[in-house]
Design a protein that fits this description.
- The structure holds 3 protein chains of 3 kinds.
- By secondary structure, chain A is an alpha/beta fold.
- Chain A folds into 4 domains: 2-91, Beta-grasp domain (Ubiquitin-like (UB roll), Roll); 124-273, Domain of unknown function (DUF4445) (Nucleotidyltransferase, domain 5, 2-Layer Sandwich); 281-316 and 414-539, ATPase, nucleotide binding domain (Nucleotidyltransferase, domain 5); 320-406, no CATH class.
- Chain A contains 14 helices and 25 strands.
- Chain A has helices at 22-28, 64-68, 163-171, 175-198, 214-221, 245-248, 270-278, 359-371, 408-431, 454-460, 477-487, 489-501, 513-520, 532-539; strands at residues 2-8, 12-17, 47-52, 55-57, 71-73, 77-79, 83-86, 124-130, 134-140, 146-153, 205-212, 242-244, 257-260, 288-292, 298-302, 307-311, 333-340, 343-348, 356-357, 389-392, 395-399, 405-407, 441-445, 471-475, 503-504.
- In chain A, helix 8 (359-371) packs across helix 10, helix 9 (408-431) crosses helix 13 and helix 11 packs across helix 12 (489-501).
- The longest helix of chain A has 24 residues, at 175-198.
- Chain A starts with a strand and ends with a helix.
- In chain A, 54% of the residues are buried.
- Residues 94-110 of chain A have low confidence and may be disordered.
- In chain B, 38% of the residues lie in helices and 14% in strands.
- In chain B, the strands form 2 sheets. An 8-stranded parallel sheet of chain B has the order 8-7-6-5-4-3-10-9.
- Chain B has helices at residues 68-71, 81-91, 112-125, 138-151, 167-177, 189-201, 222-237, 251-255, 274-292, 302-316, and strands spanning 14-17, 31-34, 53-59, 95-99, 130-133, 158-162, 180-184, 209-212, 248-249, 296-299.
- The longest helix of chain B is centred in the C-terminal third of the chain and has 19 residues, at 274-292.
- In chain B, helix 3 crosses helix 4 (138-151).
- Chain C is α/β, with parallel strands linked by helices.
- Chain C is built from 16 helices and 17 strands.
- Chain C has helices spanning 5-9, 25-33, 47-56, 105-113, 138-151, 163-173, 188-198, 209-221, 236-252, 269-277, 290-303, 336-349, 365-370, 376-385, 407-414, 428-434; strands spanning 63-66, 73-76, 93-99, 116-119, 122-125, 128-132, 156-159, 179-183, 202-205, 227-230, 263-265, 282-285, 317-320, 329-333, 353-358, 396-399, 417-420.
- Chain C starts with a helix and ends with a helix.
- The chains are: A alpha/beta, B alpha/beta, C alpha/beta.
- Chains in contact: A-B, A-C, B-C.
- Chains B and C meet through helix 7, helix 9 and helix 10 of B and helix 8, helix 9, helix 10, helix 11 and helix 12 of C.
Chain lengths: 540, 318, 437
């Protein structure tokens, strides 16, 4: 038996058999639905509303209100008749233009676009950043100026939020093929959108540069990434993966060569190498800490003499993943938060109505509640400390708006993530007998939002307690690096050099890591002496 | 010749358990422990003001799991906590560790009132300072601890175990009853410190906490606990106030449950006499924990207690 | 002084050629600092750099070999005060002492041979026999030492402050390289000459640490290299303090005269335990009952376990209690702590169980799963290797709660019904009592 499903508001239709769940159906119908567990009924994010028709659903993750209002979880729901479903705003994966702030990394908000009067025959290029969560494309003219920049969610998100879930998916029959083609399709959409906006011919794009983590580089090139997890994996350092556009399926000039910035290891990829290039760490004498607050949470420490790096598996929570009301830094995301005498005030991106909380907002909320005594050092709500704390289905929640809350579980997740990043930094430094105070500059990359307040991140114990003027938020350093490498053979050569010299530290085999990690699962840290300014605030 | 002295900045809190009549209790004496400002027994570089103490376990019900070799030592008193406590006092215990095992919901499920009665009995039977610990069930422990602490109010007991899940209740109980508190964490130096911080953030004096970092028997995870204790001590000597609490280890408990102290000669002829094996094992464990830095040893076998007391006296000689 | 990774890196060629097996020169430098590789692996190191790095890596405490043949034993060579700083390398060698007045040497030897125990698939026990010259008779000492040397492979310690007795005994057995004990302020010249003549290690006994270091310098000056130290203390409190002083001066002050292993004497389990934890490299005792030695060798094993490397259990099918064909079948990894958490809980349940310990390279359940070392295929292969199918008739397998995700695959592979057990070991008794029928 088969049924027709109509997805609103996009009005996309598809016919499926009775054994196909709505998430799979949506995927087939090209409707992007957010979910972080790969359709296993774990994350509870793929909420849809049934408008008409009968379905067989489970009530997992659904509140009484949800059930009354006909909400369902797409991955656990099957049709019994033809149905019409509505995809609510918060479940939608769409084109997001927010994240594009790479440009000259010191001025992340303003991307200086070149004039778009491109001559009809001019050779163009594209730089592509393939993040686990986000895709970003820059269309570049022959002078390597940005003509146009577009971003979207990585459509592979439908198969799971982190690289491990995707590697496992790639083990399935044709899993790798699906990952590859979905990714290419997404990139093609971005290219098309750039071409349309700048009125150029995509066929004039004759070169491309990819910066991506190792898993993404694999799926982009169509190589199965599943073995990355399995064996001690060391990519060849001189290896510069490249392929022609038509083999990859990219809708640019067929003969265009698309290169990928080489990786360091299984869990530190070309995106991080690109970040090092973009921040010029390979040219400075200053001991520099580079932290990419993305899904993998990579950390680099070093200067032109030496470079060490690690991947902290921070998880997606600074990009809004794994958080009940978490979201990307998009319009409507709460990006900063204040709490005074049990009164709440907050700001959203674009001053829109609040629909969720982005990474910067998450950091702001938790550190503010901690400082004001609403959350204790172990991350638990102090019972009775605020009228905004209410008992929810899974423990206490702090309500920021009537609807949007921060749950106990959210806080735990954030503490785990910040702990992973901080202890990763600690291990790298200790490995080379450095103290935090010897760090001369810190570069923070990632898409958690421009409003990132360094002081709040320090209060949380996410970043080392260093003077604010040592910090710089560099936004998307990965694509900046890709752009530079596309524009200059010398930069590309440097990237190869960096990939070759960078020493990967596998945290899972570092004896001290677990100890540092559990020490950091506290606010701000078990060793308060590492955070003197926070100590002062707490004792004041 | 060059000196091998370390310049330690920190010092372990000195703690007193028990209260005499003048202080509102009924104990004949108090015990003091902690206060050391160097590693265990290094008289040449620091002050070791108090010898480590031995607490001996008294159960409120017969310990069915104990091997006969151990039960035989207490055979007349196993069902009588009062006599049991008296016996321990007679053979040299520094304090009594009363274990409210019968409150376990999986066994007798004795009530808070039952527990209170046992405590009163033991307090009347022995004049030694008291350590009181619950059963293996955290939830049950939290539900009776208020009554327990009230019953022994004024006696300045050491009560436990406060764990991550119930420390708020335990802290409140200890605060209200004027007792000191054992904070227990699972073999992790950070969790240990975190729990101490959380307890003192509730307004409880950090100088009234005793750390139980989990005890492992020799051959059964001993090395993890040994190292955690050493590291705790080093942190304390580097003046980390949240790690400067005295440390208790449950030496007997971890000795008498392992195969090496239970299997008889027919099963394991190569291991030697079952009669002596257990108490020798208990002594080896106690001695090694003393060297790690344990301030209170909770023990079982009278002979092991006597020998270790002498051993401690020897170690206290400069 | 130990150099840091970055210090070493400065002297390396920085070519990142990978010929040493490391991905980068810095990785190689860090491995060198952790003593996980050796400098000769670098083909391009300059002679000047080699000299600097070699001299910096001189060990602060010498390693001394006692005995010859298969049972010879290394002592000393320690680099840290606390095991968590790195690890302790050479377990305290335990010597059981015999008097040369002993009438039945053969019996005594047999008794000592039995002081050897199976612990987690590893044999641990007494390492040395110490012969005491109680008779004060030169010839008797020599003949008994010859007898011991003939009848046992265990290396010997010859205890006599009479140089003549030692010299006489060594005439027959110097090729066995026994440790001779001891040189003191009166006899050290003769003893040094004997030790040199027979090329055997020499133990020095001072009346305190100061005299000991003084003697050590004199004896070293006479050309003796293999030295063992005894401060002369016999009270437990004094011994612990002297051992600590000697170790600190050697390791932290790089004081060469005391940079040798130590020896201690204990006549009770509690004193012996104290010395094993606090810095005796050799322990001599007259205790010779299994119940006395078993806790000591087990404690020693614990103290000398590398804290940075999990000890692994032998992967195999363990029976806990006396399981039969209806007993539950559980599976876990070969991380020792995992095993030692799981097995007592199973015992507590009083239900006999087949416990399959799979080879997961010594990782705990979750870590092993993440690294793909504990998956359905591996469990399946261990089930086949241990032939569990012939031992139970129920075809049910209980897996740890943390790895419930592998249930489907495991059922598919084995055809057995997969039951998901509790996540924490503490839940096992309850689980077995309620869920298993």
């Amino acid at each position: 038996m088969s049924f027709k499903i109509k997805f609103l508001p996009e009005n996309k239709e598809i016919t499926v058999d009775k054994d196909t769940d709505l998430l799979t159906a949506a995927l087939k119908a090209d409707v992007g639905i957010y979910n972080s567990c790969g359709g296993k009924g774990i994350c509870g994010k793929c909420k849809l509303k049934i408008i008409s028709g009968e379905v067989n659903r489970s009530v997992l993750h659904l509140s009484a209100d949800d059930i009354k209002n006909n909400y369902i979880l797409a991955c656990k729901t099957f049709c019994e008749t033809d149905v019409e479903v509505f995809v609510p705003e918060e479940s939608r994966i769409g084109l997001a233009e927010i994240l594009i702030r790479g440009k000259k990394i010191f001025d992340p908000l303003n991307i200086k676009l070149a004039k778009t009067d491109v001559s009809i025959s001019e050779d163009l290029g594209i730089a592509i950043d393939i993040g686990t969560t986000t895709l970003v494309v820059y269309l570049l003219n022959s002078g390597n100026d940005i003509l146009c920049a577009k971003a979207m969610y990585n459509p592979q998100i439908s198969f799971g939020e982190d690289v491990i879930t995707r590697m496992i998916f790639a083990e399935k029959e044709s899993g790798n093929k699906q990952l590859h083609s979905l990714l290419i399709k997404g990139i093609n959409e971005l290219i098309e959108s750039c071409a349309k906006e700048t009125k150029i011919h995509a066929k004039n794009i004759k070169s491309g540069m990819i910066a991506a983590n190792t898993t993404m580089t694999h799926t982009f090139l169509g190589i199965n990434p599943s073995y990355i997890r399995k064996i001690p994996y060391t990519p060849k350092m001189d290896f510069l993966p490249s392929q022609t556009a038509n083999k990859l399926g990219l809708n640019i000039n067929d003969t265009a060569i698309v290169k990928a910035i080489p990786s360091v290891s299984a869990y530190v990829g070309g995106d991080i190498v690109a970040g090092v290039i973009a921040c010029n760490i390979n040219h400075t004498d200053k001991p520099t800490l580079f932290i990419d607050l993305g899904t993998n949470g990579e950390v680099v420490f070093g200067n032109k003499e030496f470079l060490v790096c690690c991947s902290t598996s921070a998880g997606p929570c600074f990009e809004g993943g794994g958080i009940k009301w978490g979201m990307r830094a998009q319009s409507g995301a709460i990006e900063s938060f204040k709490f005074e005498n049990d009164n709440i005030s907050y700001k959203t991106i674009g001053q829109h109505k609040a629909i969720g909380i982005c990474g910067a907002g998450i950091i702001s909320v938790i550190s503010e509640l901690f400082i004001k005594g609403i959350i204790d050092k172990s991350g638990e709500f102090v019972d009775g400390s605020s009228k905004h704390i209410k008992k929810g289905e899974f423990g206490l929640e702090f309500f920021i708006t009537e609807k949007i809350s921060m749950t106990s579980q959210d806080i735990k997740n954030v503490i785990n993530s910040k702990g992973a990043v901080f202890s990763g930094c600690e291990v790298l430094l200790k490995k080379l007998d450095f103290e935090f105070l010897q760090i001369e500059q810190v570069k923070i990359a990632g898409g958690l939002g421009n409003a990132l307040d360094i002081e709040k991140a320090i209060i949380l114990g996410l970043l080392p307690d260093l003077p604010k003027d040592k910090y710089e938020f560099v936004g998307n350093a990965s694509i900046t690096g890709a752009k530079e490498c596309l524009g200059s053979e010398r930069k590309l050569e440097e990237a190869k050099q960096v990939a070759r010299m960078m020493t990967y530290i596998d945290l899972s085999t570092e004896p001290e890591f677990m100890n540092n990690y559990t020490a950091s699962l506290f606010l701000p840290h078990t060793d308060l002496n590492l955070f003197p300014t926070v100590k002062n605030i707490l004792e004041a | 010749m060059e000196q091998a002295l370390e310049k330690w900045q920190g010092k372990i809190y000195e703690l007193t358990i028990g209260a005499t009549k003048d202080e509102g209790g009924t104990r004949s004496k108090k015990v003091k422990f902690g206060g050391i400002n160097t590693l265990p027994f290094l008289h040449f570089e620091g002050i070791v003001p108090n010898p480590p103490l031995i607490a001996v376990e008294v159960w409120d019900t017969e310990p069915t799991e104990w091997p006969d070799v151990l039960k035989n030592e207490y055979k007349d008193v196993l069902n009588n906590p009062m006599q049991w406590a008296k016996k321990c006092e007679d053979f040299g215990a520094d304090l009594i560790c009363l274990r409210l095992a019968s409150t376990d919901p999986d066994t007798i499920n004795a009530s808070a009132a039952d527990a209170s009665k046992t405590i009163k009995d033991v307090l009347s039977a022995s004049s030694l300072p008291l350590m009181i610990i619950g059963c293996g069930n955290n939830e049950k422990n939290s539900s009776i601890i208020m009554d327990v602490a009230q019953t022994a109010k004024g006696e300045n007991c050491l009560i436990g175990m406060a764990v991550k899940e119930n420390y708020k209740t335990f802290t409140a109980a200890a605060q209200a009853g004027g007792h000191s508190l054992i904070a227990e964490t699972p073999i992790d130096i950070n969790l240990e410190k975190q729990l101490n911080i959380l307890i003192s953030d509730l307004g409880f004096g950090s100088d009234r906490i005793v750390i139980h970092p989990t005890t492992g028997g020799i051959g059964y995870g001993f090395e993890y606990c040994y190292t955690i204790i050493e590291r705790t001590r080093l942190a304390a000597l580097a003046s980390d106030k949240m790690m400067s609490q005295p440390i208790v280890t449950f030496v007997g408990q971890e000795t008498w449950k392992i195969k090496e102290c239970k299997a008889d000669e027919t099963e394991k002829p190569e291991w030697g006499s079952i009669k002596d094996r257990g108490f020798l094992w208990e002594k080896a464990t106690a001695s090694a924990y003393l060297q790690a830095g344990s301030d209170i040893l909770v023990m079982n076998h009278p002979k092991a207690v006597k020998d270790i007391k002498i051993h401690i006296q020897e170690l206290m000689k400069k | 002084m130990a150099l840091s990774g970055l210090d070493i890196y400065k002297h390396l060629p920085k070519t990142n050629c990978k010929k040493c097996g490391c991905a980068t020169c810095l990785a190689f430098a860090m491995a060198l600092a952790a003593k996980k590789t050796s400098l000769d692996k670098c083909p391009d190191i300059t002679e000047a750099a080699k000299q600097i790095l070699d001299s910096a890596s001189l060990p602060p405490m010498a390693t001394i070999t006692i005995g010859s043949g298969t049972k010879k034993i290394d002592v000393g060579g320690e680099t840290v005060m606390f095991r968590h700083d790195k690890t302790f390398y050479h377990p305290t060698a335990i010597a059981v002492s015999i008097s040369d007045n002993e009438t039945n040497i053969q019996d005594k030897i047999e008794k000592i041979k039995k002081l050897n125990f199976d612990r987690v698939g590893m044999m641990v026990g007494v390492d040395l026999i110490a012969l005491k010259n109680d008779s004060n008779n030169v010839n008797k000492f020599a003949s008994v030492s010859k007898e011991l040397s003939d009848k046992t492979e265990l290396p010997l310690i010859l205890l006599s402050d009479n140089p003549q007795a030692i010299d006489e005994a060594l005439k027959n057995i110097s090729n066995k390289r026994p440790l001779i004990y001891s040189a003191n302020s009166k006899n050290y010249e003769q003893m040094s000459d004997i030790a040199k003549k027979h090329t055997v290690p020499l133990c020095i006994c001072g009346k305190d640490v100061e005299e000991l270091s003084d003697l050590s310098q004199k004896i070293t000056a006479r050309g003796v290299k293999d030295i063992v130290l005894d401060s002369g203390a016999r009270e437990v409190s004094k011994c612990i303090q002297d051992f600590t002083k000697i170790r600190r001066l050697a390791l932290k002050k790089n004081f060469r005269a005391l940079g040798f292993p130590t020896i201690g004497f204990a006549e009770s389990v509690e004193d012996a335990s104290a010395y094993i934890t606090k810095y005796a490299n050799i322990l001599v005792t007259s205790m010779d009952k299994p119940e006395e030695l078993l806790p000591l060798v087990t404690l020693r094993l614990n103290i000398y376990t590398d804290p940075q490397k999990p000890i692994m259990m032998e992967p195999k099918l363990y029976s806990i209690g006396t399981p039969n064909e209806n007993s539950p079948f559980m599976v876990t990894t070969n991380f020792s702590l995992t095993f030692f958490t799981v097995s007592p809980e199973v015992e507590n349940s009083k239900i006999p169980v087949w416990l399959l310990v799979c080879d997961a390279e010594g990782m705990s359940v979750l870590t092993a799963w993440a690294a793909d070392k504990f998956n359905a295929e591996i469990i399946d292969s261990w089930m086949k290797k241990t032939d569990i199918a012939s031992k139970v008739k129920h075809k049910k397998i209980i897996i740890p709660g943390y790895v419930s995700v592998m249930s489907g695959k495991l059922e598919e592979l084995t055809g057995w019904e997969v039951l998901v057990g509790p996540k924490e070991a503490a839940g096992i008794p309850k689980y077995l009592k309620t869920v298993w029928k």
